[in-house]
Write a structure and sequence with these properties.
Layout lengths: L2 H4 L1 H23 L15
Length: 45
């Protein structure tokens, strides 16, 4: 039994922080309003 299984509340907090970090990274990447796709995406159309 790991120390994380002994503390379910800590596990939940770490999970929430993990998801918040992902959302924050997405906001930082796309928050400038630059939603243009890479030019190679529509090359074949």
């Amino acid at each position: 039994m790991s120390w994380l299984e002994k503390h379910p509340a800590l596990h939940r907090v770490l999970l929430i922080l993990y998801y918040l970090a992902i959302i924050l990274a997405l906001i930082l990447m796309y928050g400038r309003g630059d939603f243009s796709t890479a030019p190679f995406v529509y090359q074949g159309f």
